[in-house]
Amino acid sequence: MDHPEPRIYVAGHRGLVGSAIVRTLRARGHTHIVTRTHDELELTDQDAVRAFFRSERIDQVYLAAARVGGIHANNSYPAQFIYDNLMVQTNVVHEAWRAGVGRLLFLGSSCIYPRLAPQPIREDYLMEGGLEPTNEPYAVAKIAGIKLCESYNRQYGTDFRSVMPTNLYGPGDNYHPENSHVIPALMRRFHEAKTEGASEVVIWGSGKPMREFMYVDDMAAACVHVMNLAPEDYAANTEPMHSHINVGTGTDVSIHELAHLVGEVVGFEGRIVFDASKPDGTPRKLLDVSRLRALGWSARTPLREGLRRAYDAYLAAQLADVAA
């Protein structure tokens, strides 16, 4: 007997990761994908979230909804970052449990780990040291999300899973001049500099920090892979108190290398200057992805190829804005 097609709710379907998850699910033939815009469903409103789960009979949840941003945004809006993320996570996880949802995947962030964690970062390094101060409120919220899922699994026997992605980029990214992450921020600045004929671009920080970057469609594929693992396979590669799984490429580059690579992809031919008076953030952040590889999945998109696709998507979005 064939299993019925699951009803899958993707929370945050308009965001970078959520939109990639929807693309991946559709490409794999899933037709019962449930989405809601922010105007249609306010996830910080518990009554609204409860009503949604009562009416929609959801089988699986991808919890990709979050307030996100780079160093500037995290420094400027710490209260919003911790409040919004705590409320969204708590409401969705709790109401998914109340509604009897079969499986939930919570998406966290690699910033949950100690600022000076040994490299590469293993899942069991969680809470073994101080966090990076520039994004501590966001990181605390994401740690709470992991522990929320673990606690519901322990007390109620739910099948709520967590994945911790590395730095992501690709179609659907946020290119805000102040609140974006490093790759979209660099891409926009290099594009504007090229368009304006500028002779140089100044980059915040020394350029020395090492970062790992993953193309967002690879992340989405990893999420679907982890979601569909048999419970015994997932449990065999996790621990009750560290049940989350790192998702990354297993390789990193310096911000200096990244800036020059983005500049090449965009076609900027001027000078790139690093302002060492600005904050660098965490010195290095590379995830140990051995658990994920043991579960049969590895990233596929090389950084240069991913950046080229991301820039194509950026140009297409620019053209669409002009046409509108």
From TrEMBL:
Gene3D superfamilies: NAD(P)-binding Rossmann-like Domain, UDP-galactose 4-epimerase, domain 1. This is GDP-L-fucose synthase. Belongs to the NAD(P)-dependent epimerase/dehydratase family. Fucose synthase subfamily. It is an enzyme of class 1 (oxidoreductase). Substrate binds at R189, W204, R211, D280. Keywords: Isomerase, Multifunctional enzyme, NADP, Oxidoreductase. NADP(+) binds at residues 12-18, 107-110, 142, 165-168, 181. InterPro entries: Epimerase_deHydtase, GDP_fucose/colitose_synth, NAD(P)-bd_dom_sf. The record marks S109, C111 as: Important for catalytic activity. The active site is at Y138 (proton donor/acceptor). Pathway: Nucleotide-sugar biosynthesis; GDP-L-fucose biosynthesis via de novo pathway; GDP-L-fucose from GDP-alpha-D-mannose: step 2/2. It catalyses: GDP-beta-L-fucose + NADP(+) = GDP-4-dehydro-alpha-D-rhamnose + NADPH + H(+). Catalyzes the two-step NADP-dependent conversion of GDP-4-dehydro-6-deoxy-D-mannose to GDP-fucose, involving an epimerase and a reductase reaction. Residues 8-229 form the NAD-dependent epimerase/dehydratase domain. Its EC number is 1.1.1.271. It holds the Pfam family Epimerase. It comes from the Bacteria.
